[in-house]
Amino acid sequence: MTQQPTQFERGTDGPKVIVVGVDGSQSSFRAAAYAGGLARRQNALLAIVYVQPVMPAGAALGAPVAETTGEIAEGLVEEIRVAIERVRDVWDVRWEFHTFHGDPYSGLVTAADELKADAVVVGASESAGHRIIGSVAVRLVKAGRWPVTVVP
């Protein structure tokens, strides 16, 4: 019996890039903490991703959407920096913050693709409406492109 040729492997065990989605919700911060622990134990890069929503209707009405979402991103970065400084002596992890534009699902897919993610971590949805139309986490799992961890 002939052996099948092995497929290309990156030559490492475990993930090297872990993408985590943050949006300021408590579940997203829990997801970031969980992903940070994974990244530390695996010596992986933690890519923290905020997806800025695109709201053309708000922009058409004159609402300063870009400024608001940019301020949210800046606030998230500052909050993450403060949290990491508090635990710097016991929690050493390489991390980067990235901002993408679009709806959360598409933004995280783009981020995971561009950053060559080995794993994606997201917080469980806190919205009751997602039971009807599907949460970002469920859509990421159904995409079947990366291991996805959903943190409650």
Automatic annotation (TrEMBL):
InterPro entries named in the record:
Rossmann-like_a/b/a_fold, Universal_stress_UspA, UspA
Spans through the membrane: none
UspA domain span: 16-152
What family name appears in the similarity comment?
Belongs to the universal stress protein A family.
Indicate what this protein is called per its UniProt record.
Universal stress protein A
